[in-house]
Structures are given as C-alpha cells and as structure tokens.
Fold these 3 entries.
Entry 1:
Amino acid sequence: MIVVVVLTSILTRFLPFSAFFRNVDTLVHELSHALVTLGLSGRVNVIHLYSNQGGVTLSTYSSNWMAIPISLAGYIGSALFAVLLFYLYAKRKERAGLITVMILAIVAAALFVRNGYGVIWCIGFAVLSGLVAFMAPSLLQRCYYMLIAFICLVESVISPFVILFLSVTRPGSAGDAANLAQATHVPAVIWCLVFVAAALWSAKISTSLLFKRGFGSGEPKPAR
C-alpha cells in the first residue's frame, strides 16, 4: 500500500494537467460535507472550488453538535470514494465510475458551486468525463479512469497528513480538524489522527481491490 501511494503521488505530479484532476478529490470532499448537512436537515449555502485544489463549503444548521458529523464527512467521504472507484475497477465497471463522477460534477455545478472557477471546472470535467465514458475506446477509457482513481487515492491520503502537520504547527489553520476541536474541545491533532487512520484503512482496501483485478485489459477469458 505504501509503495503504491508513494509511487503514484510522485508519478501523478509529472503528468500534464494533473492539477486539474486533483480537484476531483476536492469536489468529493466538499460534496460529502454538503450531503451530511442535507441529511441533518441543514442548508448548503454555497461551495467554492479553487485552482489550488482548495475548497470550502458554507452551510447553515440548527444545532452546534451537527458540526461534528459535518466536519468529519469531508476527509472520510473522500477516502471512501477512493475505495468505491477501485471497487468499480475490480468489477470492471469503469464506465459506471465515470458516469458517477460526471453526475457529481453536474449536480455540484447546478446546485451548490457558485464561484467562477468552480463552475467552469465542474462543467469542463463533466463534459470530458462524459465524452470518455461514451465515446472513447476501451483502453483510453480505462487509462482515464485509473488516472482519476489513483489521484483520488493519493489525495485522500496526503491531505490528512497535511492538516496533521498544520494541527501541530498552526492548530487554528487545520481546517475541519480545527472546526472539530472548537465543537468538541478535543485537540485538532487527535481529529487529524482519526482522518489519517481512516485514509490509511481506505487505502489498504483500495490497493487490495487494485491487485485483485490486476492490470489486465479485457474481460476475463472463458475457461477451455
């Protein structure tokens, strides 16, 4: 697992336009906040996505305790989404995965994202993913899908370590962990360790699903 994550994190940084695709993890992170907010009968005011792979979700909810599940949802949701992508890969359902990320981008642009870059990115990503899902040859479709899956895996692991560092050096800047610390009076570093544990557990499952199928191209051949 460690080797896969480290090698992928290095390789994806050298790919052209990889920064564009790293916003997929940001989108899932912010939509996870939004989904839990709506599940608690709160209101999602706006989501902003930025070109530096940052994002923010502004929401309104009735009780202070709701800040806990809402703040937990971001990093845990993105980690579980990486598992979903590799599960679909193991089941040879890359098109279903591409349709899923396309729909997420469309829903986000239509309902929540309101800053200029965020809207343009969502529309561009949805169009590109739709074209690949329905028009690209199988090899290109699979390569595009694996690019997204690996980037989501890497970002879901790296991001918790980044805020873990911030929780030690600048606790007030530790994002969701800082919000949890304010709501629970439990130090931000403890919440960061929870995020790191969830990310590593999800990465372990994702890599096991990856090697379960391997890197074969087509459908399994029938036995003779």
Entry 2:
Amino acid sequence: MTGFSIGGIRAQFPALSLTDNGKPRIYLDNPAGTQVSQHVIDRATRAMIEQNANLGGAFVTSQMALALVEEAHAAAAQFYNAPSANDIIYGANMTTMTLAMSRNLQKTLNISEGDEIVLSRMDHDANVAPWLLVAADTGATVKWLEFDTESFEFPGDALDKVLSDKTRIVAVGYASNCTGTINDVKSMCAKARSVGAISYVDAVQFAPHGVIDVQDIGCDFLVSSAYKFFGPHQGIMYGRSDVLESLFSYQVRPALEYGAPGKFETGTAPRETLAASLGAIEYIASLDDGYIGLPLSRNRVVSGMRAAMGHEMSLTRQLIGGLSSIKGVKVRGITSDNAMARRVPTVSITMDGKNPEDVATSLAKDNIFLWSGHNYALEPIHHMDLMKDGGVLRIGLAHYNTADEVDTFLERLEELA
C-alpha cells in the first residue's frame, strides 16, 4: 500500500472484518479504545517469543529486550517530538500514571494549605480526581476553568481569571472526550509557566487525531494512552527533563539509583505492550508512505497523522451535518463547518425524549458500537446539566471508519429519533 487508502487501511485490522450473525461490526466506540492493526499484534507476539527477558543480562534474550525498550522510548519521543527518549515514561495507563505523578509532584513541590491547583470543567476525570485528592490531602485550593456551554470552548481569559502567584499546578486537557473541543494548550502552558506553575496536559483524546509537539506546546508533562491510538493498553508520558530529574519518585530501593525515565517506571515493563506501542507508532508513520517499520522519523509520524486527519475531517463533516438534520438531536460540541479544525471527531449528542443508554442498546442490536452516559467526563456532563437525563450518546470516529458506516449509523439513528 502506498498513500492513504481506506480499503488498504481496513485490511490491516483483523477486527474490522468480523461479523456477528452476518452483521458487520461498526466501531464508533473509538474514544474509549481503538482496534489494533496486525502489525501491532505481530510486534507483541514477537516480543513474547524472542524478547521476553529482564534487562541487564549478558545473554541474547536480555540484550534483545533492552533494544526493544530503547526502541519503544525512542519511538514515543518521535511521536511527541520530545527532545530525548529519556523524557519518555511508560506505564499502565494515563489514569494510573497521573495518580502516581500527582503524588510525586505533591511531595516534591511540598504542596500545602494556601497553594492553588487549577483544573478544567471540560476534562476526563483522570485529569481531575488525582488533583482533587492532592488538594484534599494538603488543604490546597482548587480553582476551575469554566467553558461556555453554548460555544463549548473556553473564553480567552478563562485561565487569566483563576491564575495567581499561588498557583502550583495547571491540569488541562488537549481535547475533550465529551465535547470534542481542542483546547489552546500552548497558550495555557505559557500562562502557567509565567506564574511558576507546573503544566500537566491530558492528550488521551487528542493523540489519535492530531500531531503532538511537546516542544512547541511548552508543557511540563503530557500523557496519553496507546490503546486510544491503535495500540495496547498502556500509558505514555512526556516529562520535561529538568523537572523529571528534580522530582521525588516512589520506587523500590534498587531502582532509586536510576535517573529518568527508569526511576518513574515501577517494576518490569511488559515487553509485549512496549513492543505493541512501538508498533502502533510505526503504523501511524506508515499512513502516508505505506511503509511499516524502522527506522522511524518525526517527519514520517507527522505525515502519517496528517493523512489520517484528512480522512477524519471529511467523516466528521458528514457526521455532524447528518446529525444536525435529525429532528430532536442536539450536538453537544462545535458544529460550525469552518471550525472543524478546533475539534476532534468525538461527537456527543442528546435526543429529545430519549435516554442515551436506551439508544446505545438499540444500536448495539444492529452491531453499531458506541457509548452512553458520562464516559468518565463528570465535570462537563455536570457543567452542561445532563447527568439527570443520562448523560450523552457519544459517537467516536477513527481513520479506519468509512462514509458508508456513518450513513448506516445516521439512518438507524433517524429511525430511533
């Protein structure tokens, strides 16, 4: 395959050819986790057969395992455009890593009563609850970034209103897993830095749909989960090198001698998921030129992601246009055609007189997969006063979805409406 071809793309994903009672599966549950390509599966299998050993040995399996670990960190550095592979930390998932890092920061920064933590009403709870726990344990004050429930964006001065010289941490989302809004995290991180605060960016929902450049953003931390961008269940964090080196880490004693990233990677990293994460980044890099494998380059990662973005943009316009024409359906996010670049293809809706869970259950009978409820986005659902009505119905596109799948979904939804 050369260049982006939806037929060629879909052929690489074994799950996309599965049927149930003769019905093909339509995966619109992608914000909660994407399917994986055969290359990712092959990478994991090879790791379990050929590279399954701990590090530091003189024998060949250990040496191959070390090479895999180094390749995986280098690939993630290319994916994030991190200055060094040593700035990359692998862990269980974004939530687990954020809970751990919040405690490291709490201890190192000596957060206490009188300090302030800025959180967002638009975020997934994985970038809210850990910081609320820090505040509860230390007496720190939480301040909130409030988004406009009509525009589904933050006013330009939202962060200015809550920042002060007491702010220690600013935790924000790159893109909302509820509204789909892409936030101006570069500006937010610059403002956090201006008052001496640490910036912590949740990029889980953005990572499958856009180019990440931590050096351009200027963040202190950024984290995503590989299973949201066609990889395994694993979290990948970037940390600014000087911050990482200064941080306390909760570790077992033999590992305390390590610098970053080792001092933050507790236990033995599973070889199969490291390999699969590497494979996912290799896959993304292939989406423009058709070549899967090493060597990776930043240019290939960017070109591959942009090829996927073009297809997704077309599908998003088709989806939102169709939803806007169905009576009783309200899109809880940006809908303007000329503002599509300010959102990811994660689209939440409500339907007059319909419970989201009931609609999701009906669609599941037609093998159309999607989620309903709060989707762990407690703050935005409460902020829009939708919890009492069962939250939202969330449709999430990925680059392997097709225009025919979008049409099938819209036709069935209109029948239900």
Entry 3:
Amino acid sequence: MISIVGLGNAASRVAEKFKKTKNYNVYTMNDKVQRNSKYKFKLKSYENAEEYEKNIPNVAKFFAEIDDHVQFFVVGSSYSSNYSLGVLEQLKNKKVDLFYIAPDTELMTGIPKVLDKVVFSILQEYARSGLLNSFTPLSNTMIEKSIGNIPIKSYYEKINESIFSTVHYINYFTHAEPEIGMISKPLDINRIRTYGVIDPKNLEEKWLYNLDMERDLCYYLCINKDKLENEGGLHKKIVDMLKEKPHNAFRRISYAIYETEHDDFGLCVAHTNAIQEYT
C-alpha cells in the first residue's frame, strides 16, 4: 500500500482522486476539515506566512498508521505550503515522494509568488540531500497543454484527474511485469524528476514540466492485447524510434511494454540530479 497525503485545499482535492482504487490510504490536511478523523486533519489558517512557520501542527498521532511509502502532494503558492517542511520532518523515517504542483507564475504576484519560489527551492534541496526519496514538479500550465482545450467550469477537475491517472499508472507500471523491455533503475543521485505522456504512434512526449538536464529517461508503453498478439515487427518499430532519441552515457534511455485491453497509451519519466531554476 501507498499512503497519499494532500497538504492544503488544492492538494487535498488531488489526493481525494486516489480514493478510486484500493491501493492507497488517502490523508488530507486542510482548513476545510470540520473535524479531525483517521484520514482528515484540520489545519489552522493565518494571515501571514510567518504565523504558519511558528505553528507547525503535531501530526505524529495522525500519521501513526501511515504506510512506509508516502506520496505527498503540495501546491507551492498556497499558504499551507508553509507547513510542508515541518510536516515532512515528521515523516523523515518514511520513503517520501514529493509531488510539487506548480501554478502559472507569469501573472502571479505578491506573497503567493514568494512562497512558490521559496518552497520550490527548499524542497529540491531536501531531495538532493536524501531527506526525500524524490521531488516531482508538475506544471498546471503544461498539464493543460497535454490535455487540450479545457472548459473553465471543469478546469481544475480535469487537471487533478490527469495528475491522478499519470501518478497512478506510473505506480502500477513500477510494480507490474512488462511483456518485454526493462526500465533501468535511475542513479541514486537523480532524485528530481517529472512525468510526461507519450503519443504511442510516434513516441512524441508531452512533458508535464520542463525539466533541465535529463539523465535517465524511462518510457512506459501500454499496447492493446490484439496488437501484441498479431502485429509483427511492432517491437522493432518501437525500439527504432527510441534509438532516434538523443542518448549517450549521460542521457540514458530505457523502456518497457505492457498489455492493455483498451486503446494504446504511454507515459514517460525523466530523472536528473540538477536543481531546477525557478521560472
């Protein structure tokens, strides 16, 4: 089992999506919670960032039964992100994958932009030092591009659904046996990563964050069962397309192919050890 933690109102809405499957225990922490329970924790809200840092909640009891593997979601521009360092400190004995949902910063001003920049930088250093198992930035703007035109009324619903499905399927692939291929284990220093979706016809990537200096690139392809059984030459075609992508001793590529009863789809993960500049 994997425990999902959503810190803040927006991140909690993402975390709630994981309740669709039985593979996760979902914990949400936000100021909309009416009453603390096993999986819900009410956060206090304040008028300035300093107050958050002075009032880190004690969540030892709340996380008493949390799984050893934790996937932690936070939106950097939210005031509740000020709690993240203090809460993560209380999970230091767990394997924590941090998912950082980056807002569109071009029109952002004031305290939210400062918070976004500070939290983004500090959490990367946490990953680099080994305090986090991984740091995965995901950009709302780039997720929107990967989906296409989204109606305003369902904007965040579509974004959150995309984040859930991408993270969930990568989790699934990580623990499933492929039909062919093998995903190379990234070097231990490459703890900063991002995800992307692939067009299975040409393996064109639509990254969910612009990651600098990719070191390990992993391609997960889910191919319809009928194609796997009857389409000769499919494996060679896929491998040839992968060989055309830039690769060398510092930019490694690996792949795995899985079976699906549905339409073909693909996902990819890029890993690096380079601290990402705030943009």
